[in-house]
Amino acid sequence: MAIVIRSARQEDCPAMMALIQELAIFEKAPDAVTVSMEEFEESGFGLSPVWWAFVAVDGLEVIGMSLFYIRYSTWKGRRLYLEDLIINEPYRGRGVGKMLLDRTIAYAKEQGYSGMMWQVLDWNTPAIKFYESYRATLDGEWINVSLNFDK
């Protein structure tokens, strides 16, 4: 396995969107992905990017990604928010997730951020065990809040 981890490029966006759709299906929300390719590309590679990503590549194929943005905590300062860590299903359990998460952690440390945050569904036992192997804290106290605007 000659997997390479590198920064995402605009030409990776179609493969990244396919991974996002795969995640939505896995999370039992196949119709929840409504972002357009244009919005996705502009948000990551336009004049004012709001997200960054690392991709795992096997040969020429993008097989995983770590997409993140910067969050600010009035208590802790700048923190990396890991929006998605997605590995193509045939590659799961082969260390690709660890490679991506390790690179993302290294990036956050290089940037001087105070830490990282992310979410995991309470029924995703393999992911929970994976994150616990990093000694990550799982906090069941906070409730997710979302406000959606119609376009």
What does this structure look like?
It comes from Sphingobacterium faecale. It holds the Pfam family Acetyltransf_1. This is GNAT family N-acetyltransferase. Keywords: Acyltransferase, Membrane, Transferase, Transmembrane, Transmembrane helix. Residues 3-151 form the N-acetyltransferase domain. This protein has 151 residues and is of the alpha+beta class. A hairpin with a 3-residue loop joins strand 3 (61-73) and strand 4. The model has no long low-confidence stretch (mean pLDDT 94). A 5-stranded mixed β-sheet has the order 1-2-3-4-5. It has a single domain (3-132), classed as Aminopeptidase (3-Layer(aba) Sandwich), CATH 3.40.630.30. It has helices at 13-26, 37-45, 96-110, 125-132, and strands spanning 3-7, 52-58, 61-73, 77-87, 116-118. The chain is globular. The protein is built from 4 helices and 5 strands; from the N terminus they run βααβββαβα.
In short:
With 151 residues, this protein is of the alpha+beta class. The chain has a single domain, classed as Aminopeptidase (3-Layer(aba) Sandwich), CATH 3.40.630. It contains 4 helices and 5 strands; from the N terminus they run βααβββαβα.
CATH architecture: 3-Layer(aba) Sandwich
Average pLDDT number: 94
- Which percent range fits the helix content? 25-40%
Task: Give the count of structural domains.
Answer: 1
Could you give a short account of the major beta sheet?
A: 5 strands, mixed
Q: How many helical stretches?
A: 4
Q: If you compute it from the alpha carbons, what radius of gyration comes out, rounded to the nearest whole angstrom?
A: 15 Å
Which structural class is indicated by helix and strand composition?
alpha+beta
- Coarse morphology: globular
Strand content: 25-35%
Q: What is the multimeric organization of the chains shown?
A: single chain
Strands ordered across the widest β-sheet: 1-2-3-4-5
Which stretches are low in confidence, meaning pLDDT under 50 for 5 or more residues running? none
Element-by-element helix/strand order: EHHEEEHEH
